[in-house]
Description:
The protein is an alpha/beta fold. Helices cover 39% and strands 19% of the residues. 29% of the residues are buried.
Amino acid sequence: xxxxxxxxxxxxxxxxxxxxxxxxxxxxxxxxxxxxxxxxxxxxxxxxxxxxxxxxxxxxxxxxxxxxxxxxxxxxxxxxxxxxxxxxxxxxxxxxxxxxxxxxxxxxxxxxxxxxxxxxxxxxxxxxxxxxxxxxxxxxxxxxxxxxxxxxxxxxxxxxxxxxxxxxxxxxxxxxxxxxxxxxxxxxxxxxxxxxxxxxxxxxxxxxxxxxxxxxxxxxxxxxxxxxxxxxxxxxxxxxxxxxxxxxxxxxxxxxxxxxxxxxxxxxxxxxxxxxxxxxxxxxxxxxxxxxxxxxxxxxxxxxxxxxxxxxxxxxxx
Length: 318
């Protein structure tokens, strides 16, 4: 069962797409938490957006209000949403965004003033800054503690930008080891952990997650007698893929889950009409027309990485 909620939040009208399956072994509460989290990660839901009330969500999906309330509470504990007394539930705002913008403006102002004092005009400074941008961001350091997810993000960044990308866990991350030609990259929900790096002047880029509804739009649904294989080394990828396939109407028994850490993970996938996998796993089944790659990082985030590196060409999309 799925529904499209068109909702008004202040002056902005936004659409939130939710898929729920009451026949899945995944609890409804967890389905709600996962999909709202992805909505925030992909900017389908923006900071300050007001979410539908508990009663409205329960009525729309014919579920118990306590289930919605529990999902909202779990999101609030993760600081993804916040409750405002007498007003409702809202997507949390990031407190350091304004300060970050102000810091950038101060740096630009100082650059222009110092250049003018040395006799350089605005046009010349702008051209020089553009050349620095084109040559100064040649590699990326992916900070992510989950090894499997880190490998996927490295592959996506390298495939999308053509630049060198390496990875490190938060536990092993060393601020002093970040070179001047390196941009630190992490997922959006790690911004709080890395906020001190921004303040220290280190270039940080936070990836937004792909919008699952947008990815599913226009895709043909498999026939009832067709099998769908999902393959990845990251357990989170396997869980999310199964959740959305079931919610889209694919029977759980028609889904073949294959963790690639297992030596015989390719067993049985030859019977599948569709293979859904991540950017790393795709390299093991290269050339197979059944393969559909779901990328974790959004297209807009990869475009931002290319922009920082001064890359103007568009990488081939799968």
